[in-house]
Amino acid sequence: MTMDEASDQLLVQRTRGGDVNAFGELVQRYQTSVFSVCYRLLGDSAEAEDLAQEAFLRAFRRLGSFDETRPFGPWIRRVAANLCLNVLQQRRPPPTELDDEVDEVPGDPEEMPELAGDRAELAQRVRAGLLRLPDPYRSVIELRHYHDMSYHEMAAALGIGVGDVRTRLFRARRLMARWLTADD
Description:
Helix content is about 65%, strand content about 0%. It has helices at about 10-15, 20-40, 45-60, 70-90, 120-130, 135-145, 150-160, 160-180.
């Protein structure tokens, strides 16, 4: 069996047995998605490259504790996301709480005005909005919408309760909606 045909599970086993080429194959398979996680959270490609590399180094060192019955891809992306969140937390002051938030968005969601501009402009506004979000909100958006994690998986990855995940996701979406529909 060639490296291309090997499953992630087999590559993890081979790496544990001392085959560094097997880990190289895992890096090749996941380097784009790991970089993507880092870039979305950090917004800087050079820093994202550095932290993506650090995520793979940490994963290699911790491969002995990896549960190979679980998929490797989500695990390595969680390692990267947690690493980026730690860096963001160290360099930023703690986010301020939003004042007396209401749990409902005013008006009927069906009646919301359509977003203006073409797809490229919208994509730019979404990226800018993501970078404006406080770190806890950005992380739940990233994990839910870009990595399709369930609420329980997100809670485990972030070390918070499912209720907190739901609250952060609701607030993050509401902020993004306000920013994206605001008249500029």
